[in-house]
Amino acid sequence: MGRITLEAVTKRFGEVEVIPPLNLDIDDGEFVVFVGPSGCGKSTLLRLIAGLEDTSGGRILIDGKDATDTPPAKRGLAMVFQSYALYPHMSVRKNIAFPMRMAGVPQDEQDRRITAAAKALNLTDYLDRKPGQLSGGQRQRVAIGRAIVREPAAFLFDEPLSNLDAALRVGMRLEISELHNRLKTTMVYVTHDQVEAMTMADKIVVLRAGFIEQVGSPMDLYRAPKNLFVAGFIGSPKMNLIDGPEAARHGAHTIGIRPEHIAVSPTAGTWQGRVGVSEHLGSDTFFYVEGTGLAETITVRAGGDIDLHHGDTVFLTPDAAQMHRFDDTGARIA
Amino acid sequence: MATRQTAGLARLMRAPAIILLLIWMIVPLGMTLYYSFQNYNLLNPAAISWAGWFNYQYFVTDPAFMAAIRNTLVLVLGVLTITVVLGIAIALLIDKPIWGQGIVRILIISPFFVMPPVAALIWKNMIMHPSYGVFADIARFLGLQPVDWFAQYPLTSIVIIVAWQWLPFATLILLTALQSLDGEQMEAAEMDGAGAISRFVHLTLPHMARAITVVILIQTIFLLGIYAEILVTTNGGPGNASTNLTYLIYRAARLNFDIGGAAAGGIIAVILANLVAIFLMRAVGKNLD
Ligand SMILES: Nc1ncnc2c1ncn2[C@@H]1O[C@H](COP(=O)(O)OP(=O)(O)OP(=O)(O)O)[C@@H](O)[C@H]1O
Ligand SMILES: [Mg+2]
Q1: Residue A333 lies in a domain
Q2: Cβ–Cβ contacts within 10 Å for residue B255, how many?
Q3: Set of chain B residues whose Cβ sits within 8 Å of the Cβ of A52
Q4: Which of A230, A265, A294 is the last residue of a domain?
Q5: Which residues line ligand 1 (CB under 6 A)?
Q6: Domain for residue A332, yes or no?
Q7: Tell me, what's the ipTM?
Q8: Which of A82, A108, A125, B183 is deepest in the core (most CB within 10 A)?
């Protein structure tokens, strides 16, 4: 079981309130991702859940029991750190065994769990190496192995993939998702990479300056962002945001339209502009269209084989059904 | 890597320094070796003659010799134990943010700046003196008989003084090691259920192993040659109770004017020091690579 509830949890460092009173429910077995810009308090929130930071107010419940003042080791949670935090003078086997040794798990049970974890994480050949003799991806797997063998109520990950290169990141992302499907244990995952958030999460929590801007499934956030911040944060490339008369024409202060919801034509359409930079990805092409008079650039996505070049005139037609409208406070107009 | 040509050039450029160092070492060592085989007493400097192994035999069969070896070992091991254990403890204490940290750190380092004879004199006359030392005052305040440190516990007193002098060095090296310990590792261990003691044993100590090795090696080199502190406090006595090898050699040379005997003692000391060094490198040197 791994149900985590935060009730009006607050965190202050001296005078600075990093987390204002915050409420959040994490269901058993859920994969929850915290996203938000740098410094918004994602790590702090995770460390509060882990017990590595003391709360300044509010309660943290784990499986319904008040764990606010429970020391980290007693909360039954396992954490994977960004720097891996492996014990450098211990072999991989000893690293993975460490939490079980501390908990007094019998030796044969330890061996059984180590073997199983090593097999699941492709570490069998490296068990007798020291962390210094492993690659970044292997170290990350050892850190995950050390978390798995404790059979925790929930896993906490703090940007576990940010030290890995792009290709390895995609691989590890899949491995962690598979792990979640297999173990069905609650996972709380911090990242500022919104692709990770979109692909892995059951539920995304978007944070800004300690406030929860929106909580929902990846597709909820994509389809119906609650406000301008979430609209701009979720989606890649970013949603186009348009103010002024064009927005007023739709009865809003600001309208938002995603690059994939704008049709491109060399001959006719609602808006007119010039092609600026274009990015050809093969399957897709992104055009940054200038001189529309709506916003500095409008990003649009087109098919891979469209024949438009720098300086060409283009016509853009937004899909009205996919348009998002926001009022002057930035909140979504239903 | 360097080509053969540049390697040759490098060797040529290094040569003057190495040759100078070699002369610096070889000449005194050679002269000592030479005198150790001569009958040469300053009371009768004209009568120099070949002595064979006599000086060595004389030095080794001196009843003070075994006592000196034992005292040297006690001195080195005692000071090492005190400085390493207390050094770790103090380093752990001042690594935590405490009020007035800067001042505390300077105070703890300051004994290292006091030269050995001065430190020994202060301890002798102001702290351990049986009538007007601080310890005597404390003893009288508690209604106890003051201890005459240098008469009753001569070697222990010297161990205390020398440990006081070397504690800052040990603390400083160990503190630097402690400060380079990764905070996330500690937090990971905390989450893994390791208590403060387990964390110290499984993480802190292995992390500090290298620094402890450095402290032991460097201190041993200096502690084998302790001399000034003995000279100004106990003069090696009572009897031979606080005579170490260095002091025994000094006694042969300056009190008995026996240059040959002192030289033989010096050579024996060099051999013993090298034995200790080899033993130490075997025992703890593996922590260094
Ligand atoms: N020990 C501390 N003392 C004072 N302020 C702190 C402390 N730790 C964090 N903060 C502040 O709290 C805020 C949130 O920090 P946090 O590390 O949670 O950000 P984050 O969302 O994880 O950012 P990033 O994506 O860069 O890791 C920051 O403004 C930071 O300066
Ligand atoms: Mg962070």
Answers
A1: no
A2: 11
A3: 187, 190-191
A4: A230
A5: A 13, 18, 36, 38-44, 192
A6: no
A7: 0.81
A8: A82
Q: Which of A9, A12, A43 to mutate to test the pocket of ligand 1 (most atoms within 8 A of CB)?
A: A43
CATH of the domain at A107: 3.40.50.300
Please tell me whether residues A16 and A157 are part of one structural domain.
yes
How many contacts does A have with B, using Cβ atoms within 8 A? 58
Same domain, residue pair A99 and A242: no
Of A198, A213, A230, the last residue of a domain is A230
Instruction: Give residue B247's domain range.
Output: 53-288
| Contact with chain A for residue B14, Cβ under 8 A | no
Looking at residue B55, the DSSP 8-state letter turns out to be H
How many domains would you assign to chain A?
2
The number of domains in chain B is: 1
pTM of the model as a whole: 0.80
Q: Residue B191 and residue A73: Cβ atoms within 8 Å? A: yes
| A41 CA from centroid of ligand 1 (Å) | 5
Give Dmax over CA atoms of chain B in angstroms. Answer: 79
Over the range B149-164, which residues count as b (16 or more CB within 10 Å of their CB) and which as e? Answer: bbeebbbebbbbbbbb
Whether residues A279 and A199 share a domain: the answer is: no
Residues of the domain holding A23? 4-230
CA-to-CA distance for A329 and A306, rounded, in angstroms? 38
Q: Which residue of A has its CA nearest to B193?
A: A73
Tally of CB atoms within 10 A around A329: 8
Residue A213: which of A186, A231, A198 has the closest Cα? A231
Residues A78 and A25 in one domain: yes
pLDDT in tens, chain A (334 residues): 789 999 999 999 988 999 999 999 999 999 999 999 888 999 999 999 999 999 998 999 999 889 899 999 889 899 999 888 999 999 999 999 999 999 888 999 999 999 998 888 888 899 999 998 888 888 988 999 999 998 899 999 999 888 888 888 888 899 899 989 998 999 999 998 888 899 999 999 999 998 999 999 999 999 999 999 999 888 888 999 998 888 888 888 999 999 999 999 888 889 999 999 988 888 889 999 998 888 889 999 988 778 888 888 999 999 989 999 999 998 998 7
Min CA distance, B100 vs chain A (Å)?
20
Question: Are A88 and A66 in the same domain?
Answer: yes
Q: Chain A partners of B180 at a C-beta cutoff of 8 Å?
A: none
Index of the ligand 1 atom closest to the CA of residue A47? 18
Q: Is A22 exposed, middle or buried (0-12, 13-18, 19+ CB in 10 A)?
A: buried
Q: Are residues A162 and A254 located together in one domain of the fold?
A: no
Give me the CATH number covering residue B114: 1.10.3720.10
CA-to-CA distance for A49 and A182, rounded, in angstroms? 24
Query: Residues A52, A154: one domain?
Result: yes
Ligand 1 midpoint to CA A44 (Å): 6
How many angstroms is it from B116 CA to the middle of ligand 2?
51
